[in-house]
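Figure 2 data, in text form.
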Amino acid sequence: MDLSKLSDADLMALKAGDLSKVSTEGLLSLKPQPTQSEFAETGGGAAVGRPVRGVRLNVQPTPRPLESFAAGATRSVVDPLLAVAQGVTGGKGGVSEAVKRLAQESQVYEEANPASYIGGRIGGAVLPAAGVAKGVGMIPSFARANPYAQGAAVGAISGAMQPVETGETGLPMYQQAAQNVATGGAIGTAIPVIGRGIQAAGGAIRRGLGLTTGAGEESISQAIKAGREGNQAFLQNIRGEVPAMDVLDQAKDALSNMRAARSQAYRQGITSTMPDLEIRAGKPLPKMPPKLDFAPITGKLDEVVESLKVKTPTGSQFKIGSAEINKIGELEDVVKTWQKDPALHTAEGLDALKQRLDALYPDSPMQRQVQRAVTSVRNTVKDTIVAQDKNYAKTMKAYEEALSLEREIERALSLGNRSAADTAIRKLQSLTRNNANTNYGYRLELARALQQQGGQDLMPALAGQALSSFTPRGLAGQGAALGIGAGGALTVNPAALAALPLTSPRLVGMGAYGLGRATRNIPKLTDAELRNMARMLTTQGVQGAINE
């Protein structure tokens, strides 16, 4: 009661005991005032909960954003436990009432700070969703199931993790829980379709930026990947801090690593072609290897040499240049050397001849005829060994495949010693650009082979080079930039001017790298686990909105 607020007339009327003469303002000041808080203080300090008596000086009238986030996270973590408790008890023993009360109290936090509360709900759902995703991902049959069946199963599990908030018990509660499971299954079935749409949209954005910048979609994808991995080669190349030749040296190192791996695998496999030991005079000695027929090799040599000549009435003449004639002479000398020594007419000896012929193979594209001749003779040598030694066939299969891949990489990317450096760099840089003039898909596969077998990933550095320019690359990119710029200038359209940064490879590349860095701390689950967790979170969110 505060008498200081009463007028003199009110005080005189109060003294006479006649309240009918006290003014309305005076009567209101005579009413008892409540304490500073009518509600219990929450852990975070928001004025929600049950009414209590007493003064709470640090209580706020509404929850703060951090409190709403914590409340949402707590509820997401607790919900699966309450759902299990309801299933076991049928909601009796005060379980359903507790669930209902928790939902009502949480509503205060949600209404005060919707964004913070939803953020907390998502954050709190990550842990149980990841656990379920990990569990179902370990089931082989589930991993092989149709994506829609997977979605339905994960959605049903998510629905089962949602407690019934109506306060019902017994059969009505179980009916509502079954409805949650059915709703979750239906939502989960639809999620793969939505996911594919989002994935397609993301791909369309990358393709669009690849077009407006002229740098190609692969460059944008590599920039995001480089950001996630913190790849310094990308940053050094996009900023122009290293010479373009570095990536060429890296490619050649990778090719050298492939050759070394091929040689090592060959040395290990060729031991299977060695003759077994036999006991002679009480000592283990190798069996004498069988002699192989050398005639098919000399026959093939004569055939290919004759194919390089033109016959005249007085004899024949080579129809190739002098440099190629010299190489053919070397080929004939090597074969004749092996032919004269019968000790070399074994699997091991003919394999040595094949290696010698491999070393004779010319790198220059100007010597196609010699390349054909050397390849024909060396293949005949290989076939001669294989026909009489089956173990050799197994060893040589992997060797031949590796050698063929190396030569194709060397040819397609111009990594030979005699190739011009600028030609090789241009071909390497074309790996990031998908157009009709770059043979993009084929060369990209060769680059991936270099990464897998040569231990060198060229793509981050190449993407950095492709995105290093501030102005669009190529005619398509420049045309896009000119159109946007001209449109903005002529119409003074702020939207058109705002789109200009999307044509700058450097700006787009650094933005994509930053996006990758921002997402680098996302848990590294398998693709299947990430899909399952995404479905779980999406299903819980949609179902929560339906229930509320």
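Caption note: The longest strand covers residues 277-280.
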